[in-house]
Design goal:
The protein is an alpha/beta fold and 410 residues long. The chain is 33% helix and 19% strand. Helix 7 packs across helix 14. The longest helix has 18 residues. It is globular, with a radius of gyration of 22 Å.
């Protein structure tokens, strides 16, 4: 791994060499603050959209924005930041403040992409703390703040701090992953004011980031219920055979699991051998396919009961189902994950980031990330404490989501 000090001594505050700058006159100026810029990192998935472009409504679109500065915390062997700077003509700076001020004495950009990386189960993975604090300090010192996109806040304290700072310093904040923004099959949005009685999301993955995306997407669906969001009362982690027992006892709904799994395009098991469809939920095949099931059971303050089931081995996608009062049919959908390397789902997110910076308005309330991050923290704590149900008074907060739908195809 290249040492950060050595790297910055050769890469910082020097004009990019190589290809000529592709900057356009009059375009919005972007600063990127990243934990790292490596293949499949947030910088790779998101920042490249603003350098190279993305597909939008049947055409290739390059946002009318210029990336002018970068600060990167880590430079492993697979680092791509210097290559991108050489190709696209922006500068790499040794500090967050320098990147935001472009080496001057005042904030000199129109928007920030805060791409902080992903965490692991222990929470010891890359952290955004070294990026968030100095960014907020620049905003306060310069008495000016600009729109900020923040990928996947994975901790309650920072999510809460950023939400509060966005109000105090008056900058629009979009804290979101691509999953709530991608296409939904069918294009389901629960009507504002829906009486949601039960909700369930099926997800995949093992890390904190995978769990966060599942919780964030659950929150994106249920926050539209009648009365708006009022917070979470308790969280419990369930694992192994206890997951299936919780379903049998009614703690999570088998009806909703059946509806959610029925939306999957990636059923595993015997279906892959003989091509015949299977009812994984009612055939008894599901426990055999999922060797290490996990669930997060969420009780909301207004009585809504929800669950996230991580079913690695049974499906390869994320799906959702909800039971609404006075509606006979269960509402359900799949969150489409287009294949790599293009990852068109991140193009849906890029649309919203571009709109954020151009309009100065976020389509998503930062409290969504606050709640999702808080549930994630308590999920991990409950898991470490043997599945203890944890009260969550810190998640007692009220907000009403934006009326607009912001997923692709809405």
């Amino acid at each position: 791994m290249t040492g950060r000090r050595t790297f910055l001594s050769t890469a910082s505050v020097v004009p990019a060499a190589g290809r000529p700058s592709r900057a356009r006159s009059g375009a919005r100026r972007l600063a990127i603050l990243a934990s790292r810029w490596t293949p499949d990192s947030p910088a790779h998935r998101i920042a490249d959209r603003f350098l190279i472009g993305y597909p939008r409504e049947g055409r290739w679109r390059r946002p009318a924005m210029n990336v002018v500065s970068l600060h990167v915390e880590q430079t492993p062997d697979a680092d791509q930041s210097r290559e991108r700077a050489d190709e696209f003509g922006f500068r790499i700076y040794p500090s967050v403040a320098d990147a935001l001020r472009c080496g001057r004495d005042r904030l000199a950009v129109d928007g920030v992409l805060l791409l902080a990386g992903q965490g692991d189960d222990s929470g010891s993975g890359p952290s955004s703390s070294d990026l968030v604090e100095p960014m907020l300090r620049v905003f306060a010192e310069d008495r000016r703040a600009v729109p900020v996109y923040w990928d996947e806040p994975l901790g309650l304290n920072q999510a809460r701090k950023m939400a509060e700072a966005s109000r105090q310093l008056k900058f629009p904040l979009l804290a979101a992953s691509s999953l709530p923004m991608t296409w939904r099959l069918p294009p389901l949005e629960l009507p504002a004011g829906s009486r949601v009685e039960r909700a369930l999301l099926v997800g995949i993955g093992f890390g904190r980031s995978d769990r966060y995306r599942a919780l964030e997407t659950l929150q994106a669906m249920v926050e539209r219920r009648r009365g708006g969001e009022t917070g979470v009362r308790s969280v419990q982690s369930v694992a192994g055979q206890a997951v299936w027992r919780a379903g049998s006892s009614g703690r999570w709904s088998r009806e909703l699991l059946e509806a959610a799994v029925a939306r999957s395009d990636s059923l595993q098991g015997e279906t892959l051998k003989d091509g015949r469809p299977r009812d994984l939920v009612n055939s008894g095949e599901l426990p055999r396919l999922v060797e290490h099931p996990e669930a997060c059971l969420v009780d909301y303050s207004d009585g809504l009961r929800a669950a996230v089931l991580m079913l690695n081995g049974a499906v390869n996608d994320f799906t959702f189902a909800a039971r609404l009062r006075d509606v006979s049919e269960v509402a359900s959908t799949q969150f489409l994950l287009p294949p790599e390397p293009n990852r068109a789902g991140s193009a849906c997110l890029a649309v919203r980031i571009e709109d954020l910076i151009q309009s100065g308005r976020s389509p998503v309330r930062p409290e969504r990330a606050w709640i999702a991050s808080g549930i994630l923290d308590r999920w991990m704590e409950s898991k470490n404490r043997g599945g203890l149900t944890l009260e969550t008074p810190e998640l007692t907060l009220e907000y009403r989501p934006s009326a607009e739908s912001c997923f692709c195809g809405a």
